[in-house]
Amino acid sequence: MKIVTADLSGPEIAGFLTEHVQQMRSLTPLESKHALDLDGLRAPDVTFWSVLEGDSLVGCGAIKRLDTSHAELKSMRTRPTRQRSGVASQLLEHIITEATRMGFTRLSLETGSAEFFLPARRLYEKFGFRRCEPFAVYRPDPNSTFMTRTL
Known about the structure:
Shape: globular
CATH class: Alpha Beta
Strand content: 25-35%
Number of strands: 7
Number of domains: 1
Radius of gyration: 14 Å
CATH topology: Aminopeptidase
CATH architecture: 3-Layer(aba) Sandwich
CATH superfamily: Gcn5-related N-acetyltransferase (GNAT)
Low-confidence stretches: none
Oligomer: single chain
């Protein structure tokens, strides 16, 4: 398995991210959906990684610069057939290392509060994220859980 910075140009990643956004829309009311689409992930303040096993895409994740010291974790996703196989843990460890290398001192995220998102919240807690108040442009939302950690 390898983790690479991705340019988001191939059809495989476009389809993978379209599935992600569609799944989030099916689980969360539209006003509470914060997943970035392909164009949002191509913004200059976003760094995006793909997780590859051979030539197959098995996961992805990104960080979005909020300011000089604070970034937001975005678009963590593991291919459904590979969930709970360590892909997300390896990717999250990589992203934390890279965010630190980039000079960030804080990494925050928004994820769902529904039962479906419990494995994700447990993963983030395992890596030192703790619940926090809404950050950046977010507002309190019963469908959202906000988490942060110091790097």
